[in-house]
Amino acid sequence: MKNKKLYLSYFWCILFIAGLIFIDQFTKSICLSHLKGNDPIDVIQNVLQLSYVSNRGIAWGMLWGKVNFVVILTTIISAIIIYIVYKIGLRINFYTINKVEGHIIKIRNLKILQITLMVMFSGAIGNLIDRIRLGYVVDFVYLKLIDFPVFNVADIYVTLSMIAFVIFYLFKLEEEEIFILFKSKQKWIQDMKIKAFSKKQD
To answer: Which pairs count as long-range contacts for 144-152, CB under 8 Å and 24+ apart, including other chains?
Structure first.
Protein backbone atom coordinates (compact mmCIF):
# COMPACT_ATOMS: atom_id res chain seq x y z
CA MET A 1 0.00 0.00 0.00
CA LYS A 2 2.82 2.37 0.95
CA ASN A 3 4.70 1.47 -2.22
CA LYS A 4 1.55 2.18 -4.21
CA LYS A 5 1.44 5.68 -2.72
CA LEU A 6 5.07 6.21 -3.70
CA TYR A 7 4.46 5.03 -7.27
CA LEU A 8 1.31 7.18 -7.46
CA SER A 9 3.30 10.23 -6.37
CA TYR A 10 5.83 9.56 -9.14
CA PHE A 11 2.98 9.17 -11.61
CA TRP A 12 1.68 12.65 -10.69
CA CYS A 13 5.21 14.01 -10.98
CA ILE A 14 5.49 12.64 -14.52
CA LEU A 15 2.05 14.01 -15.40
CA PHE A 16 2.95 17.45 -14.01
CA ILE A 17 6.22 17.57 -15.96
CA ALA A 18 4.53 16.34 -19.14
CA GLY A 19 1.86 19.04 -18.80
CA LEU A 20 4.43 21.82 -18.43
CA ILE A 21 6.47 20.55 -21.39
CA PHE A 22 3.28 20.31 -23.48
CA ILE A 23 2.41 23.96 -22.72
CA ASP A 24 5.92 25.04 -23.73
CA GLN A 25 5.93 23.03 -26.96
CA PHE A 26 2.37 24.06 -27.83
CA THR A 27 3.17 27.78 -27.52
CA LYS A 28 6.28 27.28 -29.66
CA SER A 29 4.30 25.46 -32.35
CA ILE A 30 1.85 28.39 -32.47
CA CYS A 31 4.82 30.73 -32.77
CA LEU A 32 6.25 28.76 -35.69
CA SER A 33 2.84 28.71 -37.40
CA HIS A 34 1.87 32.35 -36.93
CA LEU A 35 5.00 34.40 -36.21
CA LYS A 36 7.81 32.89 -38.26
CA GLY A 37 8.23 34.95 -41.39
CA ASN A 38 5.60 37.46 -40.24
CA ASP A 39 5.69 40.84 -38.53
CA PRO A 40 5.77 40.94 -34.71
CA ILE A 41 2.45 41.21 -32.88
CA ASP A 42 2.00 43.92 -30.25
CA VAL A 43 0.14 42.50 -27.25
CA ILE A 44 0.59 45.72 -25.27
CA GLN A 45 1.82 48.67 -27.32
CA ASN A 46 5.52 49.40 -26.61
CA VAL A 47 5.46 47.01 -23.64
CA LEU A 48 4.92 43.37 -24.69
CA GLN A 49 5.43 41.96 -28.15
CA LEU A 50 5.35 38.51 -29.73
CA SER A 51 8.23 38.15 -32.15
CA TYR A 52 9.82 35.00 -33.60
CA VAL A 53 13.53 34.48 -32.90
CA SER A 54 15.67 31.37 -33.40
CA ASN A 55 18.15 31.13 -30.56
CA ARG A 56 21.17 28.92 -31.26
CA GLY A 57 22.78 29.58 -27.88
CA ILE A 58 21.49 29.63 -24.33
CA ALA A 59 20.30 32.57 -22.21
CA TRP A 60 21.18 36.00 -23.65
CA GLY A 61 22.98 34.45 -26.61
CA MET A 62 25.75 32.74 -24.64
CA LEU A 63 27.40 29.67 -26.25
CA TRP A 64 25.97 30.72 -29.61
CA GLY A 65 26.18 27.94 -32.19
CA LYS A 66 27.50 25.33 -29.74
CA VAL A 67 24.35 23.21 -29.98
CA ASN A 68 25.99 19.83 -29.32
CA PHE A 69 27.75 21.09 -26.20
CA VAL A 70 24.55 22.70 -24.89
CA VAL A 71 22.59 19.47 -25.55
CA ILE A 72 25.14 17.38 -23.60
CA LEU A 73 25.30 19.92 -20.75
CA THR A 74 21.51 20.17 -20.52
CA THR A 75 21.15 16.37 -20.55
CA ILE A 76 23.62 16.00 -17.65
CA ILE A 77 21.96 18.74 -15.58
CA SER A 78 18.49 17.32 -16.31
CA ALA A 79 19.60 13.84 -15.24
CA ILE A 80 20.89 15.24 -11.94
CA ILE A 81 17.63 17.12 -11.35
CA ILE A 82 15.43 14.10 -12.05
CA TYR A 83 17.62 11.96 -9.77
CA ILE A 84 17.11 14.46 -6.92
CA VAL A 85 13.35 14.55 -7.61
CA TYR A 86 13.34 10.74 -7.39
CA LYS A 87 15.28 10.77 -4.10
CA ILE A 88 12.96 13.43 -2.67
CA GLY A 89 10.04 11.07 -3.35
CA LEU A 90 11.85 8.30 -1.46
CA ARG A 91 12.67 10.68 1.38
CA ILE A 92 9.06 11.84 1.69
CA ASN A 93 7.97 8.18 1.79
CA PHE A 94 10.64 7.48 4.43
CA TYR A 95 9.38 10.32 6.65
CA THR A 96 5.78 9.18 6.20
CA ILE A 97 6.52 5.57 7.20
CA ASN A 98 8.83 6.32 10.12
CA LYS A 99 6.98 9.37 11.50
CA VAL A 100 10.24 11.24 12.05
CA GLU A 101 9.98 14.21 14.44
CA GLY A 102 8.62 17.20 12.56
CA HIS A 103 7.96 15.01 9.54
CA ILE A 104 4.91 17.01 8.41
CA ILE A 105 6.96 20.20 8.08
CA LYS A 106 9.85 18.29 6.51
CA ILE A 107 7.52 16.64 3.99
CA ARG A 108 5.95 19.98 3.09
CA ASN A 109 9.35 21.56 2.49
CA LEU A 110 10.52 18.60 0.42
CA LYS A 111 7.37 18.72 -1.70
CA ILE A 112 7.93 22.42 -2.42
CA LEU A 113 11.53 21.63 -3.38
CA GLN A 114 10.35 18.76 -5.57
CA ILE A 115 7.83 20.95 -7.42
CA THR A 116 10.47 23.67 -7.90
CA LEU A 117 12.92 21.18 -9.40
CA MET A 118 10.23 19.65 -11.63
CA VAL A 119 9.44 23.09 -13.06
CA MET A 120 13.17 23.66 -13.65
CA PHE A 121 13.47 20.23 -15.31
CA SER A 122 10.46 20.93 -17.55
CA GLY A 123 12.06 24.15 -18.78
CA ALA A 124 15.36 22.45 -19.49
CA ILE A 125 13.67 19.60 -21.39
CA GLY A 126 11.40 22.01 -23.30
CA ASN A 127 14.41 23.81 -24.75
CA LEU A 128 16.35 20.56 -25.16
CA ILE A 129 13.58 19.21 -27.41
CA ASP A 130 13.96 22.29 -29.62
CA ARG A 131 17.72 21.93 -29.89
CA ILE A 132 17.50 18.25 -30.82
CA ARG A 133 14.53 18.64 -33.17
CA LEU A 134 15.31 22.00 -34.78
CA GLY A 135 18.93 22.77 -33.96
CA TYR A 136 17.87 25.95 -32.17
CA VAL A 137 15.42 27.18 -29.52
CA VAL A 138 12.22 28.98 -30.49
CA ASP A 139 11.85 32.29 -28.61
CA PHE A 140 8.93 34.64 -29.04
CA VAL A 141 8.17 36.76 -25.95
CA TYR A 142 9.73 40.23 -26.10
CA LEU A 143 9.47 42.76 -23.26
CA LYS A 144 9.86 45.81 -25.44
CA LEU A 145 9.49 48.23 -22.53
CA ILE A 146 12.86 47.22 -21.05
CA ASP A 147 14.36 45.77 -24.24
CA PHE A 148 14.77 42.39 -22.54
CA PRO A 149 16.15 39.52 -24.69
CA VAL A 150 13.42 37.47 -26.39
CA PHE A 151 12.48 34.36 -24.40
CA ASN A 152 9.93 31.53 -24.26
CA VAL A 153 7.77 29.63 -21.77
CA ALA A 154 10.56 27.15 -20.91
CA ASP A 155 12.81 30.10 -20.03
CA ILE A 156 10.11 31.35 -17.66
CA TYR A 157 10.02 27.92 -15.98
CA VAL A 158 13.79 27.88 -15.48
CA THR A 159 14.07 31.50 -14.31
CA LEU A 160 11.19 31.38 -11.81
CA SER A 161 12.20 27.98 -10.44
CA MET A 162 15.80 29.12 -10.00
CA ILE A 163 14.67 32.20 -8.07
CA ALA A 164 12.27 30.08 -5.97
CA PHE A 165 15.01 27.51 -5.30
CA VAL A 166 17.51 30.11 -4.08
CA ILE A 167 14.95 31.83 -1.82
CA PHE A 168 13.65 28.53 -0.48
CA TYR A 169 17.15 27.17 0.11
CA LEU A 170 18.30 30.31 1.95
CA PHE A 171 15.26 30.84 4.16
CA LYS A 172 13.29 27.60 4.54
CA LEU A 173 15.27 24.48 3.78
CA GLU A 174 17.80 22.92 6.13
CA GLU A 175 21.13 22.07 4.51
CA GLU A 176 20.82 18.56 5.90
CA GLU A 177 17.70 17.99 3.83
CA ILE A 178 19.69 18.60 0.64
CA PHE A 179 22.85 16.64 1.45
CA ILE A 180 21.02 13.65 2.91
CA LEU A 181 19.29 13.07 -0.43
CA PHE A 182 22.61 11.87 -1.84
CA LYS A 183 22.94 9.23 0.87
CA SER A 184 21.50 5.71 0.69
CA LYS A 185 18.32 4.61 2.45
CA GLN A 186 20.44 2.48 4.80
CA LYS A 187 22.30 5.64 5.82
CA TRP A 188 18.96 7.37 6.47
CA ILE A 189 17.95 4.54 8.83
CA GLN A 190 21.33 4.63 10.52
CA ASP A 191 21.15 8.41 11.03
CA MET A 192 17.64 8.09 12.44
CA LYS A 193 18.78 5.45 14.95
CA ILE A 194 21.75 7.60 16.01
CA LYS A 195 19.48 10.61 16.58
CA ALA A 196 17.01 8.47 18.54
CA PHE A 197 19.84 7.08 20.70
CA SER A 198 21.28 10.57 21.31
CA LYS A 199 17.86 11.82 22.35
CA LYS A 200 17.51 8.98 24.89
CA GLN A 201 20.95 9.79 26.30
CA ASP A 202 19.90 13.41 26.81
So the answer is: 144/46, 144/47, 144/48, 144/49, 145/46, 145/47, 145/48, 149/59, 149/60, 149/61, 150/51, 150/53, 150/55, 152/24, 152/27, 152/28, 152/31, 152/126, 152/127
